[in-house]
UniProtKB/TrEMBL annotation:
<keyword id="KW-0963">Cytoplasm</keyword>
<feature type="domain" description="Exoribonuclease phosphorolytic">
    <location>
        <begin position="39"/>
        <end position="163"/>
    </location>
</feature>
<dbReference type="GO" id="GO:0034475">
    <property type="term" value="P:U4 snRNA 3'-end processing"/>
</dbReference>
<feature type="domain" description="Exoribonuclease phosphorolytic">
    <location>
        <begin position="167"/>
        <end position="228"/>
    </location>
</feature>
<dbReference type="Pfam" id="PF03725">
    <property type="entry name" value="RNase_PH_C"/>
</dbReference>
<dbReference type="InterPro" id="IPR050080">
    <property type="entry name" value="RNase_PH"/>
</dbReference>
<dbReference type="GO" id="GO:0071028">
    <property type="term" value="P:nuclear mRNA surveillance"/>
</dbReference>
<dbReference type="GO" id="GO:0006364">
    <property type="term" value="P:rRNA processing"/>
</dbReference>
<dbReference type="GO" id="GO:0071051">
    <property type="term" value="P:poly(A)-dependent snoRNA 3'-end processing"/>
</dbReference>
<keyword id="KW-0539">Nucleus</keyword>
<dbReference type="GO" id="GO:0000177">
    <property type="term" value="C:cytoplasmic exosome (RNase complex)"/>
</dbReference>
<dbReference type="GO" id="GO:0016075">
    <property type="term" value="P:rRNA catabolic process"/>
</dbReference>
<protein>
    <submittedName>
        <fullName>Uncharacterized protein</fullName>
    </submittedName>
</protein>
<dbReference type="GO" id="GO:0003723">
    <property type="term" value="F:RNA binding"/>
</dbReference>
<keyword id="KW-0271">Exosome</keyword>
<dbReference type="GO" id="GO:0005730">
    <property type="term" value="C:nucleolus"/>
</dbReference>
<dbReference type="Pfam" id="PF01138">
    <property type="entry name" value="RNase_PH"/>
</dbReference>
Length: 252
Protein backbone atom coordinates (compact mmCIF):
# COMPACT_ATOMS: atom_id res chain seq x y z
CA UNK A 1 0.00 0.00 0.00
CA UNK A 2 1.37 3.41 -0.98
CA UNK A 3 1.54 6.06 1.74
CA UNK A 4 0.38 9.47 0.58
CA UNK A 5 0.55 12.82 2.29
CA UNK A 6 -2.44 15.12 2.47
CA UNK A 7 -3.34 18.44 4.00
CA UNK A 8 -6.68 20.07 4.81
CA UNK A 9 -7.55 22.90 2.46
CA UNK A 10 -7.19 26.46 3.68
CA UNK A 11 -10.78 27.13 2.66
CA UNK A 12 -12.01 24.39 5.00
CA UNK A 13 -9.99 25.85 7.84
CA UNK A 14 -11.32 29.34 7.19
CA UNK A 15 -14.87 28.00 7.02
CA UNK A 16 -14.43 26.27 10.37
CA UNK A 17 -13.10 29.49 11.93
CA UNK A 18 -16.09 31.47 10.60
CA UNK A 19 -18.48 28.91 12.05
CA UNK A 20 -16.74 29.07 15.41
CA UNK A 21 -16.80 32.89 15.37
CA UNK A 22 -20.56 32.87 14.66
CA UNK A 23 -21.05 30.42 17.53
CA UNK A 24 -19.06 32.58 19.95
CA UNK A 25 -21.11 35.64 18.97
CA UNK A 26 -24.31 33.98 20.19
CA UNK A 27 -25.70 35.04 23.55
CA UNK A 28 -25.29 31.64 25.13
CA UNK A 29 -22.76 28.96 24.16
CA UNK A 30 -20.91 26.27 26.06
CA UNK A 31 -17.13 26.41 26.48
CA UNK A 32 -15.35 23.29 25.27
CA UNK A 33 -13.87 22.55 28.71
CA UNK A 34 -17.17 23.00 30.54
CA UNK A 35 -16.28 26.24 32.34
CA UNK A 36 -18.60 29.19 32.74
CA UNK A 37 -17.65 32.48 31.08
CA UNK A 38 -16.32 33.83 34.39
CA UNK A 39 -14.49 30.70 35.54
CA UNK A 40 -10.69 30.35 35.23
CA UNK A 41 -8.91 27.12 34.46
CA UNK A 42 -7.61 25.08 37.43
CA UNK A 43 -4.13 26.35 38.32
CA UNK A 44 -1.34 23.97 39.29
CA UNK A 45 1.80 25.70 40.60
CA UNK A 46 5.06 24.27 41.92
CA UNK A 47 8.41 25.81 42.83
CA UNK A 48 11.84 24.19 42.55
CA UNK A 49 11.20 22.82 39.08
CA UNK A 50 14.81 23.33 37.92
CA UNK A 51 17.51 22.37 40.42
CA UNK A 52 20.35 24.18 38.60
CA UNK A 53 18.65 27.60 38.82
CA UNK A 54 18.67 30.10 41.70
CA UNK A 55 14.90 29.76 41.69
CA UNK A 56 12.29 28.18 39.44
CA UNK A 57 8.62 27.41 39.05
CA UNK A 58 6.29 25.28 36.96
CA UNK A 59 2.75 26.34 36.04
CA UNK A 60 -0.04 24.39 34.42
CA UNK A 61 -3.30 26.12 33.53
CA UNK A 62 -5.41 23.69 31.54
CA UNK A 63 -3.42 22.75 28.44
CA UNK A 64 -0.91 25.59 28.94
CA UNK A 65 2.33 24.42 30.56
CA UNK A 66 5.23 26.73 31.43
CA UNK A 67 8.51 26.41 33.31
CA UNK A 68 10.54 29.45 34.42
CA UNK A 69 14.13 29.49 35.69
CA UNK A 70 15.78 32.45 37.43
CA UNK A 71 19.55 32.93 37.59
CA UNK A 72 21.29 35.53 39.76
CA UNK A 73 21.79 38.10 40.99
CA UNK A 74 25.18 37.76 39.33
CA UNK A 75 27.83 40.30 38.41
CA UNK A 76 27.11 42.20 35.24
CA UNK A 77 29.68 44.38 33.52
CA UNK A 78 26.93 45.91 31.44
CA UNK A 79 24.97 46.94 34.53
CA UNK A 80 28.07 48.45 36.16
CA UNK A 81 28.50 50.85 33.27
CA UNK A 82 25.32 52.82 33.75
CA UNK A 83 23.47 52.08 36.96
CA UNK A 84 23.86 51.40 40.65
CA UNK A 85 20.62 49.44 40.62
CA UNK A 86 20.09 45.90 39.46
CA UNK A 87 19.24 44.86 35.92
CA UNK A 88 16.46 42.49 34.90
CA UNK A 89 16.69 40.38 31.72
CA UNK A 90 13.71 38.39 30.47
CA UNK A 91 13.58 35.81 27.69
CA UNK A 92 10.55 33.83 26.54
CA UNK A 93 11.01 30.71 24.42
CA UNK A 94 8.58 28.25 22.86
CA UNK A 95 9.64 24.65 22.43
CA UNK A 96 9.34 23.09 18.97
CA UNK A 97 6.56 20.84 20.29
CA UNK A 98 4.62 23.53 22.21
CA UNK A 99 2.14 24.13 19.38
CA UNK A 100 0.24 21.89 17.00
CA UNK A 101 2.47 23.13 14.16
CA UNK A 102 5.81 21.37 14.57
CA UNK A 103 8.97 23.37 14.21
CA UNK A 104 7.35 26.61 15.38
CA UNK A 105 9.42 26.84 18.57
CA UNK A 106 11.23 30.15 18.68
CA UNK A 107 12.11 33.23 20.68
CA UNK A 108 9.17 35.48 21.38
CA UNK A 109 10.63 39.00 21.62
CA UNK A 110 7.24 40.62 22.15
CA UNK A 111 6.41 38.37 25.11
CA UNK A 112 9.95 38.86 26.48
CA UNK A 113 9.44 42.62 26.47
CA UNK A 114 5.98 42.38 28.04
CA UNK A 115 7.25 40.00 30.72
CA UNK A 116 9.98 42.51 31.58
CA UNK A 117 7.46 45.36 31.84
CA UNK A 118 5.13 43.30 34.04
CA UNK A 119 7.86 42.29 36.50
CA UNK A 120 10.19 45.29 36.60
CA UNK A 121 7.89 47.45 38.73
CA UNK A 122 7.52 44.70 41.33
CA UNK A 123 11.22 43.98 41.88
CA UNK A 124 13.24 46.08 44.32
CA UNK A 125 16.16 46.61 41.95
CA UNK A 126 18.12 48.61 44.54
CA UNK A 127 18.71 45.45 46.56
CA UNK A 128 21.15 44.01 44.01
CA UNK A 129 23.17 46.95 42.58
CA UNK A 130 25.43 46.41 39.57
CA UNK A 131 24.21 42.84 39.13
CA UNK A 132 21.79 41.09 36.81
CA UNK A 133 18.85 38.77 37.33
CA UNK A 134 18.02 36.60 34.31
CA UNK A 135 14.53 35.17 33.86
CA UNK A 136 14.11 32.38 31.30
CA UNK A 137 10.56 31.25 30.51
CA UNK A 138 9.97 28.12 28.44
CA UNK A 139 6.50 27.33 27.09
CA UNK A 140 6.24 23.55 27.01
CA UNK A 141 2.69 23.53 25.67
CA UNK A 142 0.63 26.40 24.31
CA UNK A 143 -3.02 26.06 25.24
CA UNK A 144 -4.18 29.68 25.35
CA UNK A 145 -3.58 32.54 27.76
CA UNK A 146 0.15 31.88 27.49
CA UNK A 147 1.45 35.31 28.53
CA UNK A 148 -0.55 35.60 31.79
CA UNK A 149 0.65 32.13 32.77
CA UNK A 150 4.27 33.05 31.90
CA UNK A 151 4.10 36.22 34.03
CA UNK A 152 2.52 34.45 36.99
CA UNK A 153 5.02 31.60 36.84
CA UNK A 154 7.97 34.02 36.51
CA UNK A 155 6.87 35.97 39.58
CA UNK A 156 6.71 32.74 41.55
CA UNK A 157 10.19 31.74 40.32
CA UNK A 158 11.61 35.11 41.40
CA UNK A 159 10.16 34.63 44.87
CA UNK A 160 11.64 31.12 44.96
CA UNK A 161 15.04 32.64 44.08
CA UNK A 162 14.78 35.02 47.04
CA UNK A 163 14.63 38.15 44.88
CA UNK A 164 13.22 41.05 46.91
CA UNK A 165 9.85 42.20 45.56
CA UNK A 166 7.18 44.64 46.66
CA UNK A 167 4.59 41.94 46.00
CA UNK A 168 3.92 38.91 43.84
CA UNK A 169 2.68 39.63 40.32
CA UNK A 170 -0.32 37.72 39.00
CA UNK A 171 -1.83 38.05 35.54
CA UNK A 172 -5.20 37.21 33.98
CA UNK A 173 -6.70 37.89 30.55
CA UNK A 174 -10.25 38.25 29.25
CA UNK A 175 -11.54 37.76 25.70
CA UNK A 176 -14.45 39.68 24.23
CA UNK A 177 -17.00 37.97 21.98
CA UNK A 178 -19.70 40.44 21.01
CA UNK A 179 -21.55 41.11 24.28
CA UNK A 180 -19.84 38.25 26.11
CA UNK A 181 -16.69 38.46 28.24
CA UNK A 182 -14.78 35.20 28.67
CA UNK A 183 -12.04 34.96 31.28
CA UNK A 184 -8.85 32.92 30.92
CA UNK A 185 -9.45 31.92 27.26
CA UNK A 186 -8.26 28.75 25.59
CA UNK A 187 -6.28 28.73 22.34
CA UNK A 188 -9.45 28.00 20.35
CA UNK A 189 -11.26 30.92 21.97
CA UNK A 190 -8.35 33.32 21.43
CA UNK A 191 -8.37 32.50 17.70
CA UNK A 192 -11.94 33.82 17.38
CA UNK A 193 -12.01 36.69 19.87
CA UNK A 194 -13.04 40.23 18.91
CA UNK A 195 -10.63 41.70 21.43
CA UNK A 196 -8.62 40.91 24.54
CA UNK A 197 -7.64 42.60 27.79
CA UNK A 198 -4.81 41.46 30.06
CA UNK A 199 -4.10 42.81 33.52
CA UNK A 200 -0.96 42.14 35.55
CA UNK A 201 -0.98 43.46 39.08
CA UNK A 202 0.38 43.33 42.61
CA UNK A 203 -2.84 42.47 44.48
CA UNK A 204 -1.59 43.19 48.01
CA UNK A 205 -0.60 46.73 46.94
CA UNK A 206 -3.60 47.15 44.62
CA UNK A 207 -1.25 48.27 41.83
CA UNK A 208 -1.44 47.39 38.13
CA UNK A 209 1.98 46.77 36.58
CA UNK A 210 0.74 46.31 33.02
CA UNK A 211 -2.48 46.64 31.04
CA UNK A 212 -2.77 45.35 27.48
CA UNK A 213 -5.81 45.96 25.30
CA UNK A 214 -6.53 44.78 21.74
CA UNK A 215 -9.62 45.14 19.58
CA UNK A 216 -12.54 47.54 19.92
CA UNK A 217 -14.01 48.05 23.40
CA UNK A 218 -16.62 50.27 24.96
CA UNK A 219 -15.75 51.99 28.25
CA UNK A 220 -18.33 49.95 30.25
CA UNK A 221 -16.90 46.72 28.81
CA UNK A 222 -13.35 47.74 29.72
CA UNK A 223 -14.44 48.49 33.28
CA UNK A 224 -16.27 45.16 33.52
CA UNK A 225 -13.29 43.24 32.14
CA UNK A 226 -10.92 45.08 34.49
CA UNK A 227 -13.02 44.10 37.50
CA UNK A 228 -13.06 40.47 36.39
CA UNK A 229 -9.28 40.42 35.90
CA UNK A 230 -8.44 42.18 39.17
CA UNK A 231 -10.67 39.86 41.19
CA UNK A 232 -9.16 36.80 39.48
CA UNK A 233 -5.62 38.17 39.99
CA UNK A 234 -6.29 38.53 43.71
CA UNK A 235 -7.49 34.95 44.00
CA UNK A 236 -4.59 33.67 41.89
CA UNK A 237 -2.13 35.48 44.17
CA UNK A 238 -3.58 33.56 47.13
CA UNK A 239 -2.82 30.30 45.33
CA UNK A 240 0.71 31.55 44.62
CA UNK A 241 1.29 32.41 48.29
CA UNK A 242 -0.02 29.02 49.36
CA UNK A 243 2.44 27.40 46.95
CA UNK A 244 5.35 29.34 48.48
CA UNK A 245 4.25 28.55 52.03
CA UNK A 246 3.92 24.87 51.20
CA UNK A 247 7.40 24.83 49.66
CA UNK A 248 8.87 26.60 52.70
CA UNK A 249 7.33 24.10 55.10
CA UNK A 250 8.90 21.09 53.37
CA UNK A 251 12.18 20.05 55.10
CA UNK A 252 15.21 20.57 52.86
Amino acid sequence: MTTSTYSPSQNSDNKRRRQQRRLFQEADWARSDGRTFQQCRPAFLRTGAASAASGSAYAEFGATKVIVSVFGPRESKKAMLYSNTGRLNCNVLYTTFSTSIRGQGTDNKEYSSMLHKALEGAIILETFPKTTVDVFALVLESGGGDLPVIITCASLALADAGIMMYDLVSAVSVSCFGKNLVIDPTLEEEACQDGSLMVTCMPARNEVTQLTLTGEWTTPKINEAMELCLDACSKLAEIMRSCLKEAASVPS
